[in-house]
Amino acid sequence: MVTLPHVAPEDDSSAAGIHRHAHLIECRLVVYHAAAASEEIVCDVLSEGVFRGSAQRFEDHISALMVPIESARFDMGTDQADVRHFCGESPHHTCKLSAFQMMRVQVTAELFSRIDPVQRKPPRPDREKPAVNVTWAQAALFALWMGCRLPTEAEWEYSCGAGAPAQWCCETERQLRSYAWYSFNARDRMQIVATREPNALQLFDMHGNAWEWCQDDYDQYFYHRAPQVDPVHLADAGWAAGAGEKVVRGGSMNALPEMCRSRYRFHEAAGFWAGDLGFRLARDMNLG
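The structure corresponding to this sequence follows.
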């Protein structure tokens, strides 16, 4: 089990700013889609606005939980002839990822509560369980507030299976219960993070416990045209109005083994939230 950093109450006016202005930011800003905005506006929001202090928050609360992932080339998706093929998983294709960092565990309820200590303070038994009932925009905003971002779908898939050909991070379905909380062993309850075995990259709960939001907009046919280097699908429109579907990965406490597979693609509306839907953080390697 991973020892998580102690989370003290947040005494930072930027947390209140996030809460007060979240509805505006959800509609008009997540920096992943800021290509249409001016560089000056982006810099103002990140450095002088509600995200002020993100670098220090990262060092204080996140850096110790990040795992460096070296650049890699791997085969993403599923061959169309595979009996386990599901909608949107093919074609099987090769992609190359630049080095990045991935959070060792899912964002916990206690950590997430820093952004809104009054409304989000979790009961003591839930503090080290995944933060759930979080929309995509809330997850993306928290990631930025902590000096991070959400992982791309390609980063997530590689981080889960480490590029191995197996369906899960382990060789067989029988072994899955050692690595995941899912329908066979979770007893319909969310579990404390990092209480199963880590995968080959020393990441916990990549299968099960809570579904995880990814950066990408969902497109069933994206694999047919995905770039080979650092693929990510960001639609031109739809996200800003709270519409559109976002990729979620990994399965949850209620998921069948098939849904926990490394390559299984699922999606939810960006404004959707549920008791088994959470997230983890990623960060470019060159940010330190």
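The chain has one domain: 54-287.
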